[in-house]
Design brief:
Chain A: This is DNA-binding response regulator. The structure holds 2 protein chains of 2 kinds. Chain A is built from 8 helices and 14 strands. Chain A is of the alpha/beta class. Helix content of chain B is 55%, strand content 18%. In chain B, helix 1 packs antiparallel against helix 2, helix 5 runs antiparallel to helix 6 and helix 6 packs parallel to helix 10. Chain B is rod-shaped. Classes of the chains: A alpha/beta, B alpha+beta. Chains A and B meet through helix 1, helix 4 and helix 8 of A and helix 5, helix 6, helix 7 and helix 8 of B.
Chain lengths: 227, 423
């Protein structure tokens, strides 16, 4: 994705440098501003694929920028990357128009995963009724899945999970993303409940197969697809 | 007859006696100055007036021999009235009369009378006029009162509407201040001042919480980035990974404390609440946690006995219920059921999570909701001891309660929340 351009609004130089390093390592182009006034001007003047906004900026609040841009018809995906990371802050962020919300300090891989997910979502993807991933077949409309010809007995939620993984094949999927997008929860239950659910899906999906499709990325989340 | 009516009659009786006396004096004057014939003329003139104009006056003027000279009273009426004091007699023609006689120096007798019915008529007229006045006064007072009450009701209605709006979390709402310098005007001004202070305090609370988070997380972000860089530059030193894990644990503690203080500070703040169906949320939670229960040989049972919709912040209530279920799973005996029941009681929604396992007894039932409290028998479990403190502060933030319901066999956490007005 060498043509991906990101607008970053971050006022703390050390943190801004760190974020830029992480993003540039992915081959993405980053434009940095430290204040909302310059940031808004840049956001309106140039096309970007993703905005990354801090919240407590010297001349304003990042969420006000989001509201301003949305009011001006600019629907570019916004990731809030901020020190304001408690539940109340996150709920407020989503309510005021942010597409994703990540608290500092963050795992570099998680930041990349979140940006990638936003890019996938904004660029859209064509979903076919029948999908083949290695020896896995997924029928969307019939809501059935087969692995090596064997029918997988999945609960409705497990099928939703499988579809989500298939839609985001080869990408890092974090626990937060699963809670938000599959369970529709904007809070972290603070337990290993996601891991247990994925574990159950993995037993049904991969079982004794030699090539596992669902893999854990230690401390971060999961990836899906043949290695 | 009313007291005022009776007083009127007494007053008129005196008045009529006075009129008779005046009449006698007037005709005596005529007699003395003009002679008896002039008295006849004067009596005829008076009787020519209408009965109402002459106020029921009747006369008899007789000569020395008792023969009538003028007037309209018969001799029979006047026989008993030789006395000069006013006397009441019955007349067949005029009904009850008050009369008085006087004898002139020439031997003529003058009798002047007034119909007593005139007293009643006059009293009735006076009373009627009084009543009409009174009714008019009452009508006027009622009109003024209705207008004043209408205005008062409208202003109180506006105040109620605004306060209801404020109660639902719109702290920017203010009572209309019309500039009227009355008690309601002063009340509106005071209430507006209080709402303004509440709004400023809530905003200040959020600013302080946000500032604390910002001031702590920003340096930790730099520290974490430095640790990560050190990890990538050197051979993986286990101490660095441990330092990052400690840092994340501290952040979870910070977030937990901020969440507790945020929920506590939000008590009474009903902004951003929306209808949440507890049965639906409970079903989602059961679906999420069922695989965890299955691993431990436990089973989650949802018993939704009533539709219970509450005004809530979905993320907070979801977190509360997930904490209760997570706790129940951790502390329940293996191979037992965890029952999540949803019911209503009056205007309250009641959600309880019950499990079999170690009992929480006595004072521990209230202490367990204190931040950092760890049950002595459960100290080996991970966490900072903030989960139940957060749960209770979330319950209180929604005007609800969270307690342990005593039961000899089960540990039961019971959450009550007010049902939505629509429920």
């Amino acid at each position: 994705m060498t043509d991906t351009s990101i607008l970053l609004i971050e006022d703390e130089p050390d943190i801004a440098n760190y974020i830029q390093q992480v993003l540039r390592a992915e081959g993405w182009t980053v434009t940095l501003h430290a204040q909302t006034k310059e940031g808004l001007h840049a956001a309106k003047a140039n096309p970007y694929d993703v905005f990354i906004f801090d919240r407590m900026l010297p001349d304003g609040e990042g969420l006000e920028m989001v509201e301003n841009l949305r009011a001006n018809g600019i629907e570019t995906p916004v990731l809030m990357l901020t020190a304001l990371g408690n539940s109340e802050n996150k709920v407020e962020g989503y309510q005021r128009g942010a597409d994703d919300y990540l608290a500092k300090p963050f795992e570099p891989a998680e930041l990349v995963a979140r940006i990638s997910a936003l890019l996938r979502r904004s660029r859209g993807h064509v979903r076919t009724d029948l999908r083949m991933i290695d020896d896995l077949e997924i029928h969307d409309k019939a809501r059935t899945a087969h692995r090596a010809g064997q029918h997988l007995k999945l609960s409705p939620k497990e099928f939703d999970l499988l579809i989500y993984f298939a839609d985001n094949a080869d990408a890092l999927i974090t626990r937060d993303m699963l809670l938000r997008d599959v369970w529709n929860m904007s809070f972290d239950p603070g337990t290993n409940v996601v891991d247990v659910n994925i574990g159950r899906l993995r037993r049904k999906l991969d079982g004794d197969h030699k090539t596992p499709l669902l893999r854990t990325v230690r401390g971060l989340g999961y990836t899906f697809g043949p290695e | 007859m009313t007291l005022s009516g009776w007083q009127t009659v007494c007053g008129l009786r005196t008045e009529i006696t006075n009129q008779i006396n005046d009449d006698v004096a007037s005709l005596s004057e005529v007699y003395l100055t003009q002679g008896p014939d002039a008295v006849d003329v004067a009596i005829s003139q008076r009787l020519a007036l209408s009965p109402l104009s002459r106020a029921g006056a009747h006369y008899r003027f007789e000569d020395q021999g008792g023969l009538p000279r003028s007037g309209d009273l018969s001799a029979a009426i006047t026989q008993s009235s030789k006395l000069t004091d006013p006397t009441i007699v019955q007349s067949t023609n005029f009904g009850s009369l008050t009369l008085r006689a006087t004898v002139f120096q020439g031997g003529e007798t003058l009798i002047v009378a007034r119909e007593n019915s005139a007293i009643r008529k006059a009293a009735w007229v006076q009373l009627r006029n009084t009543l009409i006045g009174l009714v008019a006064l009452i009508a006027l007072a009622a009109l003024i009162a209705v207008r004043a009450t209408g205005s008062l009701r409208q202003r109180i209605g506006q105040m109620n509407d605004t306060l209801d709006h404020v109660g639902k979390g719109h702290l920017d709402a203010r009572l209309p201040e019309t500039g009227q310098e009355d008690e309601l005007g002063a009340l509106a001004s005071h209430i507006n001042g209080m709402i303004g202070r509440a709004e400023r305090l809530l905003n200040l609370r959020k600013r302080v919480t946000d500032q604390v988070a910002h001031e702590m997380r920003s340096p930790l972000t730099r520290l974490d980035a430095a640790l990560l860089k050190a990890q990538s530059n050197t051979r993986a030193d286990p101490a660095l990974a441990k330092a990052r894990a400690e840092l994340k644990s501290s952040l979870r503690l910070l977030d937990g404390l901020l969440d507790v203080s945020s929920a506590e500070a939000q008590q009474g703040d009903r902004r951003n609440l929306e209808p949440v169906d507890l049965a639906e949320l409970g079903a989602n939670m059961v679906e999420l946690f069922e695989p965890v229960a299955e691993l431990r040989g436990q089973h989650l049972v949802l018993e939704a006995r009533a539709k219970a919709v509450v005004d809530a912040a979905p993320a907070q209530i979801g977190r509360l219920i997930s904490n209760l279920i997570d706790n129940a799973l951790k502390y329940a005996d293996p191979n037992t059921d965890i029952i999540i029941s949803i019911d209503t009681l009056g205007n309250k929604a009641v959600l309880s999570v019950a499990n079999q396992g170690p009992q929480i007894l006595g004072e521990l039932r209230s202490e367990i909701f204190t931040p950092f409290f760890r049950h002595p028998d459960m100290a080996e479990k991970q966490g900072h001891g903030l989960g139940l403190a957060l749960c209770r502060s979330i319950a209180l933030r929604h005007d609800g309660t969270l307690d342990i319901t005593p039961n000899p066999h089960l540990t039961i956490f019971t959450l009550t929340l007010p049902l939505t007005e629509q429920s």
